[in-house]
Amino acid sequence: xxxxxxxxxxxxxxxxxxxxxxxxxxxxxxxxxxxxxxxxxxxxxxxxxxxxxxxxxxxxxxxxxxxxxxxxxxxxxxxxxxxxxxxxxxxxxxxxxxxxxxxxxxxxxxxxxxxxxxxxxxxxxxxxxxxxxxxxxxxxxxxxxxxxxxxxxxxxxxxxxxxxxxxxxxxxxxxxxxxxxxxxxxxxxxxxxxxxxxxxxxxxxxxxxxxxxxxxxxxxxxxxxxxxxxxxxxxxxxxxxxxxxxxxxxxxxxxxxxxxxxxxxxxxxxxxxxxxxxxxxxxxxxxxxxxxxxxxxxxxxxxxxxxxxxxxxxxxxxxxxxxxxxxxxxxxxxxxxxxxxxxxxxxxxxxxxxxxxxxxxxxxxxxxxx
Length: 370
What we know:
Layout: E1 4-9, H1 13-24, E2 29-33, E3 46-48, H2 49-57, H3 61-67, E4 69-70, E5 74-78, E6 83-86, E7 101-103, H4 106-116, E8 123-127, H5 134-140, E9 141-146, H6 153-158, E10 169-178, E11 189-193, E12 199-203, E13 208-215, H7 224-228, E14 238-248, E15 253-256, E16 265-268, H8 332-357
Parallel strand pairs: 1-2, 1-9, 2-8, 5-11
Antiparallel strand pairs: 3-7, 4-7, 5-6, 10-13, 10-14, 11-12, 12-13, 15-16
Helix pairs in contact: 1-4
């Protein structure tokens, strides 16, 4: 008989979140983590409303208000800082109790998740201990969950490979804590479209600020303060937390097995992250005379033809909103905004129909010919 229901390898944010859920469900859980404290340097720095609700469900709502800062969104700027475009052309309202985007300092969030495990007697946390081999773990627990990061020892033991497609980009990450009297910095995330050096700036939680600078393949790592100087940040203005080089990688496929089955499933992937809304499900519109763009997204407004209302398709009286619409930004808040916007467009359409049909009390159902 297994001593535990679940064995978790790794107590980073993924493993710690899972361990809290297991504890809340009363599952007998053991967690192996080779470090004794949370990783001290900031890595991840952004989460959204969905993740905030997950942490709220785990009982961390009161702590989150002190650990999170609402993000003002993101804009794309030229090398001189002039705005090129932005997706933030609307007021961001809380989404089911939480704002759409937050920034945070990861060691603080990791500590919150770890400390939360003390609430659950059924969770046995073993810090400073390497996990046993997978075969031994399966003797101890019904299920083993590998949450041990990109260099996962569990993945190596199981022979789960990754094929490098050669898409590698070197980026230099610089994290600082700015002084209270430091030079003012942008309050919004910026993607700097500088042909000499692409960069990202993140105004994080509290005094934490992050820059990411693209490096050439053969470039020596530059001095971080030289890169920050054009932003008005000098060594006397901030405390350096981290300055490290990391790489982007592209993967070809993922493999998995279900339970104790010997059959393995392999699926090709084109991206590290796949986004809902990136591929439109519009095959069912074939033969409807609703115009689509080359990728299958629904054309609306001026793009659908002359004299069309905003969000109206090429067929009169039929409107499209959200991810399926060509030109949409594929974000939840924007789709919600279009849902409100289309009400005004429908009202305008029905008003025009009333005028065309004459003075009537109710507008009849519309039959739009093919």
